[in-house]
Fold:
Amino acid sequence: MPLQVLSSQDAIKIRKQNLYSNWPNRGKTNRFEPVARPKIEAGFKIEPGSTIFTVGSCFARNVEANLVAEGFRLPVRELLRRPEFDNVTMASLNNYGAPSIFNEFCWALDSDKPFDPDTGICQVKDDRYVDLHVMNEVRPAALEEVTSRREAITELYRSVRESRTVIITLGLSEVWFDQVAGNYLNVIPLPGVMRQAPDRFELHILTAGELLGYLTRTVDLINQNSVVGANILISISPVPLNQTFRDLDVSVANTYSKSSLRAAAEELVYAYDNVFYYPSYEAITLSDRKLAWQDDQVHVTDALVSEQVSRMVGAYTYRSGGEHSRDTLIESLRGGPSEQELDWLSLRYADMIKADSELSTEYAHLLIKYKRFEEALSVLEAMLVDASTIVLKVRALKLLERFEEAEALVATNLDNRSRNHQLWEEAISLSVDQGKFEEAHGRIDTWRHLAPSATGLIFRRGARIFAGYDTKVAIDLYARALEFDPDDKYALVAIQKLKEIEKLKEAERLKETEKPKEDEVFGTLEREASSPELNSKAHSQKLGSVLFDRMKAWWAPHHERG
Structure:
């Protein structure tokens, strides 16, 4: 069954209205480089200081630390203050798999299915036991201590009933199954446990459908037991598999693991009104690797974790005092503020704009829009050179008619291998603005040979540039665009409008060609009027008769044309 069904009209309408429907290239405001910032669909708001229940992988632990700093209450953090957790780290609470997350909620919320210590707790040495469902970093301890920790963990998960927000971060789909207990573990059992019962455990690679089943049961449990009406935020941990037990490259195994989790999460969001997806996985994995990952290439850098939490808090919470976060500021700039509003924003958030390349690019774009070209160049000069800044520099220089400088930038940054579509467009516009039409056509040809799949689009953009200079050339280029896409309604409408303009121009030309005929009628007046015989009665009568005959002859055909 399809995840979603849209009529062709609705699908096209959504695509046109969605500002984020196209993958950005390097010539536009680039929301994926160097740090990716996918659009956040915030379907609810988190009240300041409210309780947030968090569960998931090590990435969830990093998120928790930042949420505490933002002033939220997190029960999982309070658990570690209990005496039985004195020598236990936060990592011991990591939970990686959808089945093991379901287990914890089931044991806490379903009285008919409590935790079974006979199968869930194993003896590994004399008077030393382990809980098979916590991380192996927790050292074996006396049975009483292990049992006490288990009771505290179950109590923690039971507190989800009073949490208005639940954040679940999914880690992997490569999980271990306990054939004796009939459930999944959180991590691989300790070597000592496996030696005791080598046939007890199996590795299972779950499908997206199986993962969805466990997630659905988890959401149902939370919804049935919540006393405050919880909103559930699902995310996929960007942290990859550190190792795989499959006969695959770990990168291939990790791609399947994350893909199956992502597919299950998407279905879950469509199935429940109170489940939402947060794109932390996309944000981290699409970012520059040197910025996103620590040296182990497994764990996310503190800066990127802070960035994600800041975006989450900015999108899902009510900021006090009307202050802009980084993300709400960029949305304000993209929303097209008035020139007065732009000046206020640039003054109020000067440091934030200056320190952020994406904000600076948006600011420079708006300065160009308001014809403040010199100011835009000053902003761009202070930025690192990238594909976006080059395009804006060329545009500003062109509009200032500093053509030589603009051409120098084009020559330096545009060659026959460049795929910066926006820079190609600016280069063509630069040629046309200087009246170098042959050069403009040459650039169009070079561009379309470089990107043949975009030929129709290239002809259309070239036509748009030429439209203000030569409507016949523009019509020809739009017609060539239609050869590649006969259903291009934009090109069809543009051709119709340009032909109407051509008709008006032709009418004006006809009018101009008829002016000499009018001169023939009236031109003799001045010559005859200067005749020495001007004062004679005969001359006046002759002049009037000739003038009348010529006016009559001129008027007849004009009158017939209406």
